[in-house]
Amino acid sequence: MGRVFINYRGEDSHSYGALLYTELARRFGADNVFLDAESIPAGTDFVRELLGRVRSAEVVLAVIGPRWLTVTDPFGRRRLDDQGDWIRRELAEAFAAGVRVIPVLTDHAELPRASELPAEIAALSRCQHRYLRRREPIADLARIVADLAGVIPEATEEPPRQAPVFNQRVEQGGTGIQTSQANITINHGGAGGRA
């Protein structure tokens, strides 16, 4: 079903997207939360799946890190200026379908101004945002869960069991992100995958 769709840029905020998915799936059930790496079955037409899931969502969480606006492709062009950029396509689809978009700002990120965004997603600059910060993860996650509880009333009231730990290490060929709350390790290589 995927009533909450998590939109994130892999090069900027993958660990925060994974943390949100882990916590929200625990609270609301995995069927109510969509994260591409976890929710698309092998062999599925991912274009049809992604855009269909955005349109059918009730809320899109747009995870925005400090490099979200400025990440470039191998030719030095800003990814957001590419009409084929998946972050842009998913958000444009959400706004066109009337889906509520909640920007989630990670450490040191700021909400982009309308003038910095392509026209079809300029409305993002007017959306009330939430934070997800390293120093306040329990409080920030609790606020996001409270926002979503009105959309997904099946939420449990159970608070997070412990503070998530962001332990980032850069390795040759990719970034390894560990979050202790989920007991998962994500090694996202540089080749392929979501940018």
Radius of gyration: 16 Å
Chain oligomer state: single chain
Uncertain spans: 159-193
Give the N-terminus to C-terminus distance in angstroms: 25 Å
Q: Helix segment count?
A: 5
Give a short account of the largest sheet.
Answer: 5 strands, parallel
Strand order of the largest sheet: 2-1-3-4-5
- Percentage of residues in strands: 15-25%
Give an account of the 3D structure.
This protein is of the alpha/beta class and 195 residues long. Helices cover 30% and strands 21% of the residues. The protein has helices spanning 10-28, 36-39, 46-56, 86-97, 137-149; strands at residues 4-7, 33-34, 59-64, 100-106, 130-132, 166-171, 174-179, 184-189. The strands form two sheets. It has a five-stranded parallel sheet with strand order 2-1-3-4-5, sandwiched between helices. Strands 6-7-8 form a three-stranded antiparallel sheet, with helices on one face. A hairpin with a 4-residue loop joins strand 7 (174-179) and strand 8 (184-189). The protein is globular and about 45 Å long.
